[in-house]
Specification:
The protein is built from 3 helices and 25 strands. The protein is mainly β.
Length: 401
């Protein structure tokens, strides 16, 4: 069946009314997506006769532990010519029962930083938190069995009323206390196509809105345990339990479970209070209240955990102010986080390769040579926690402590 909306009919008919896209106006930016090229940024999809299809061998996100194949086509960033804060999408696709096609949009903030992914729905365009001059579009395809196909994608950017979701984040970003589990699953594949290795360093969150592409850390978290240790790690997988539970967002923009308070994962509400009959979005009985999954290296080496535990998670992309990205020599490398601006200070955590770090201020300390050259500057990335500038790229505007 050919459809020109983003979901199977059964889902589309129950969507609540949202902001409908106004008719095209002069000055709107319109373009058609290139559906003929699949490259290293994409995972689980292939191009066939000018269309994009979900591969039969597409990965199932390891953390979610649900037999739903997932693929992503990440399109090249698109210059709008003039700032806009909304993007509407028209899709021509074949979506069998049990499958889904969705279009996500994000806006460039400069310095390799982006807004969170926002879905362009059948009844509403994607409305970004601010007007931007460049957007990027991602096509997400999922299926249990039969394979969905996208043959055409037309996009239009325009100005819409500003979002009024009430988000007021401090410079460090939104933080919530949630239950963490160890993902494990070495040899499995994450939602972004990363093959999990022993003592890996990444996390999973139960929504693709904060999912980074493989080999990037645009969406990263700071996870801190009660023992005082923290790790900064990229979000590379979707789970645990749910895949549409961006619980860190307010109800106005939360994808599902809008009646839950901001910061409370659906799995926690299901486990502790019997919410949704005690089940997740797949109808499985929730066996723990997890709101984040930690790769083995993050769990054992970064936080020194020995069992599942409550942790404080800061969603780095929701913050403001100076930020940079950790760069190490090894793909799965890490950088020590110290209690002071010297390599002899005690190690109080780890920053994983690609992870985004928010910079509170900078101090002069021991000279260090790393991937970004030699420097005697150290960044304070949390209270009492410092990382050498020699391993962090992209920071501008940092002030002295």
């Amino acid at each position: 069946m050919t459809r020109r909306y983003l979901f199977p009919l059964a889902l589309a008919t129950v969507l609540t009314a949202g902001l409908a896209a106004p008719a095209a106006a002069a000055g709107d930016a319109e373009w058609r997506a290139d559906l003929t090229t699949v490259d290293a940024d994409d995972t689980g999809v292939g191009a066939h006769d000018g269309a994009i299809r979900l591969d039969r061998a597409a990965p199932t996100p390891a953390s979610a532990r649900a037999a739903v194949r997932t693929g992503f086509l990440l399109l090249e960033p698109h210059d709008l010519g003039a700032p806009a804060n909304a993007v509407a999408a028209t899709v021509e696709s074949t979506v069998p029962a049990g499958a889904e096609v969705a279009v996500d949009v994000r806006g460039a903030l400069g310095g390799d930083r982006w807004t969170e992914w926002v879905e362009a729905r059948p009844d509403a365009p994607a409305v970004l938190p601010r007007a931007v001059g460049t957007v990027q579009v991602r096509v997400a395809l999922t299926a249990e069995k039969a394979t969905p196909e996208v043959r055409r994608l037309d996009l239009r950017a325009f100005s819409a009323p500003a979002r009024t979701d009430g988000v007021t984040a401090e410079a460090a970003g939104l933080s919530y206390r949630v239950y963490a589990t160890r993902e494990g699953l070495v040899g499995g594949t994450t939602a972004n196509g990363h093959v999990i290795v022993s003592r890996d360093h990444f996390v999973a969150l139960p929504s693709r809105r904060g999912l980074s592409a493989k080999g990037t850390g645009t969406y990263s978290v700071r996870v801190c345990a009660s023992n005082g240790r923290c790790e900064w790690a990229p979000v590379w997988d979707v789970g645990p339990w749910n895949t549409k539970d961006d619980y860190w967002n307010p109800s106005a923009t939360r994808e599902m479970w809008k009646d839950l308070p901001q910061g409370r994962p659906e799995a926690q509400a299901a486990y502790e209070n019997g919410y949704n009959g005690g089940k997740d979005q797949f109808g499985r009985t929730v066996a723990n209240p997890a709101g984040i999954d930690l790769a083995d290296g993050t769990f054992w080496d970064g936080l020194k955990l020995t069992d599942n535990a409550w942790v404080t998670v800061t969603y780095q992309w929701t913050g403001s102010g100076p930020a940079g990205f950790v760069r190490t020599e090894a793909q799965n490398g890490t950088v020590n986080v110290r209690s002071g601006a010297t390599s002899t200070a005690s190690q109080v955590g780890i920053a994983a390769n690609y992870a985004q770090v928010r910079v509170e201020c900078q101090v002069t300390g021991q000279s260090v040579t790393g991937t970004q050259g030699t420097s005697n500057l150290w960044y304070r990335i949390a209270s009492g926690k410092f990382v050498a500038r020699a391993y962090v790229s992209g920071v501008s505007g940092a002030t002295a402590c």
